[in-house]
């Protein structure tokens, strides 16, 4: 007897064993008794999946299988819009199970080069794995991430110098002529995104100060030519920004994503006025549809001094409130080693600025759609990929429910996070 004649109720926990691995276009799976997130609220009902996509019910044949979700709360899998955990083959092996276990299926890694990106691509499984957007990273000769890269290289080789980093770990651009001359290095990384680093670009004196060597960024006048070059290749641009001036430079130059909300820490000699976004820059970000990835939780992670952190958090809250009021889209990224965007979700929940449905929408819809805008992710409607999580409890009633992932489905197939194998 064909399995299509069967109509069975299968608890999802048993799926790995109970569901056949068929990918036939005729396999119609109906997921019943669940609450489905529509971006505002949960609606009880059932949904159908054919060939890895949600489908409507009009005119459809009877389902070949039914899967009982037992009153669970279904959300699109989560996105992580700023991290480095999966940006080389070693990190992918080490961290993929954490991402899948936490339900973070889509992640943007915001630095990379030809070698590291090729390693990640080779390590990713063709199905049932975390989906990663990879980046080519551009900064100045004395810019971030040189300082971090050198510190790590010198653990192995005390004599390592910048030549091991320049045009390897990131592409160095110091002049407009470099934009064209270095572009083959960007293309060699086969990036999904380009990241530009700005660090107090309003303060060129930093570049003369040896304490900041390796922690600076691009000259501000190079940002617009770099954005134009990337856009000509169809690549979106994310900017690492640290000051309010950097934010304004990035937005005016046409970047697509601001990858840090300025002011997650105050640099030496700087105060809130250096990090308070201008009304003009916020309005321009709203007008251009720039998405801001605040990485706000970085503030608590790197804070050393309890007084400084209270000023940082107060300013962060003010900037976030003004961005939200202006309608600037916000997405979630943690930029935290050994963590995912769930820590950012928790930090943003703690600001009290966002309704539960806004936070859940950011985590499960805005962020996945920012990372993979053309792939039908971040939604549970007909035509969307059948990627979803089943939560035990209602995350609109208790934010902690996002950590209670009962089951994971990717492309219509049950996923086991610990071996990342399908069914
Ligand atoms: Zn980062």
From TrEMBL:
Under InterPro entries, the record lists:
Amidohydro-rel, Metal-dep_hydrolase_composite, Metal_Hydrolase, Metallo-dep_Hydrolase
Is Transport a UniProt keyword of this protein? no
Signal peptide position in this chain?
Answer: 1-16
Keywords attached to this Swiss-Prot or TrEMBL record, sorted alphabetically, are: Signal
Q: Which residues form the Amidohydrolase-related domain?
A: 213-400
User: Pfam families attached here?
Assistant: Amidohydro_1
From the Swiss-Prot or TrEMBL record, give the protein name. Amidohydrolase family protein
Source organism of the structure: Coralloluteibacterium thermophilum
Q: What is the lineage of its organism?
A: Bacteria, Pseudomonadati, Pseudomonadota, Gammaproteobacteria, Lysobacterales
